[in-house]
């Protein structure tokens, strides 16, 4: 029931439109409903009335025709229009609100959610599920209620004609509902399984589309196709079960529904023979039994749609209710100026319970200085930055900025102070300029160009076919890795935050460009606090303090010289890289001299 309760506020917002539509529907259905009564009147009071003269009969018939014409033309058509228009409008409004809320929800979900759920699966909420809700609303609000009202009215009128026959008809119809009800529970389970699987399927397909090029490179198309077959076969089993339940339900109900008028006519004829029922009443009654069939059929046929909609509602609201752990406090503090320091105090963290990633990490970063984190990959360097940007919260310990726990700041103001460039940066498929503008919506061309110049991106951007207006393809596929990194760097320079975070941000650049970009970073005004993670130690030698991270702990810290003199792990790393560089140089020279000789 709870999914209906959660859905109610959406419906309530559109109540006015629904009421208009509902009034329209009533007329639309009640007008045809009066027809059998008029027929009875014609039969019993006109045709079989010996007291009326020929001209009286013709006159009365004509006036009935005129009244009917007026009702049908002047009332029914506008009412039908109102019903269709207002109901659709209300449904569309609800769909729109649901999509807006779903999108908001996407933005408020924790980073963790996206590591555990595929984007295709999340996407089904927007399309598949929400469209199913449209079907549900059309059935529930435009049709079902009306059908129920019609059914009640029909039964009411029938009661005035003959009580015993009405009871018989109601019993026969009730039996049909009983069958439908008993089967609908099974239908709900199978529909839920089917829809959950459909979202898995769409996650699978979406991912394989994104990976289509990898599939080519590894010639794994056949395997992917086999996987798809496996998924589709499993889906087929579910849909078949669903179809079977539907078929059983509809076939048994339809047979009963076909049988009903026949039974009624037999019994009613008996009543006519006994003189307990007029012929006109029999004909009217028969017409009403026939009118009963269509709401009953509509109600039964709506069951699968309603069931799907109900499951879709549940899926949507389960999604809306996904708990959010990274959130603001009741009255968040605005981080206006970052003025002093960032402090990690005995921070421990794990992504999952089974493995501790950071263990008791403490350090202080002062404003305006440059820091570096180095160490083997997997040591936890990037994780430190995930915590600082509050993508995740610490398990224990605190992170303070200017003496205040970062959990107390508003997320917006906290993240506004930080700009991050990583190894693999997400770019939108739109133009270079649009991508840059995500950092600052109102940036002038001058600001944009000075940012791209700092990132040594202006030259290559200018040479793209349409310059800054060039569309760069999904996730920036039309750019090289180094170009993407430079655009991402420019994006951060444009944002101009007080804390700049570079997580292997120049890894895809060649040595020459890396040096240029580094010099650019070094020349940033000394108000900026720079946090770098770099695999190539040569790029971080100048940092004020270098933290050496190993297995989730900071084992050494200091500047380059002092770390070397420690003769510890840093020295080991540095010597290893220096030897490697030397060896590479040697190989290059050997190759060159071999070519010459
Ligand atoms: N989203 C995640 N979920 C679970 N484990 C993760 C996640 N991100 C990283 N890890 C794990 O955390 C450890 C540290 O990763 P990371 O901080 O990225 O290391 P580094 O940046 O030093 O190479 C690794 O063992 C990695 O497997
Ligand atoms: Mg990393």
TrEMBL record:
<keyword id="KW-0472">Membrane</keyword>
<keyword id="KW-0067">ATP-binding</keyword>
<dbReference type="InterPro" id="IPR039421">
    <property type="entry name" value="Type_1_exporter"/>
</dbReference>
<dbReference type="InterPro" id="IPR036640">
    <property type="entry name" value="ABC1_TM_sf"/>
</dbReference>
<feature type="transmembrane region" description="Helical">
    <location>
        <begin position="135"/>
        <end position="159"/>
    </location>
</feature>
<feature type="transmembrane region" description="Helical">
    <location>
        <begin position="17"/>
        <end position="41"/>
    </location>
</feature>
<dbReference type="InterPro" id="IPR027417">
    <property type="entry name" value="P-loop_NTPase"/>
</dbReference>
<protein>
    <submittedName>
        <fullName>ABC transporter ATP-binding protein</fullName>
    </submittedName>
</protein>
<dbReference type="InterPro" id="IPR011527">
    <property type="entry name" value="ABC1_TM_dom"/>
</dbReference>
<feature type="transmembrane region" description="Helical">
    <location>
        <begin position="165"/>
        <end position="183"/>
    </location>
</feature>
<dbReference type="InterPro" id="IPR003439">
    <property type="entry name" value="ABC_transporter-like_ATP-bd"/>
</dbReference>
<keyword id="KW-0547">Nucleotide-binding</keyword>
<feature type="domain" description="ABC transporter">
    <location>
        <begin position="342"/>
        <end position="576"/>
    </location>
</feature>
<dbReference type="Pfam" id="PF00664">
    <property type="entry name" value="ABC_membrane"/>
</dbReference>
<dbReference type="Pfam" id="PF00005">
    <property type="entry name" value="ABC_tran"/>
</dbReference>
<dbReference type="InterPro" id="IPR017871">
    <property type="entry name" value="ABC_transporter-like_CS"/>
</dbReference>
<dbReference type="InterPro" id="IPR003593">
    <property type="entry name" value="AAA+_ATPase"/>
</dbReference>
<keyword id="KW-0812">Transmembrane</keyword>
<feature type="transmembrane region" description="Helical">
    <location>
        <begin position="61"/>
        <end position="79"/>
    </location>
</feature>
<feature type="domain" description="ABC transmembrane type-1">
    <location>
        <begin position="19"/>
        <end position="308"/>
    </location>
</feature>
<keyword id="KW-1133">Transmembrane helix</keyword>
<dbReference type="GO" id="GO:0005524">
    <property type="term" value="F:ATP binding"/>
</dbReference>
<feature type="transmembrane region" description="Helical">
    <location>
        <begin position="262"/>
        <end position="289"/>
    </location>
</feature>
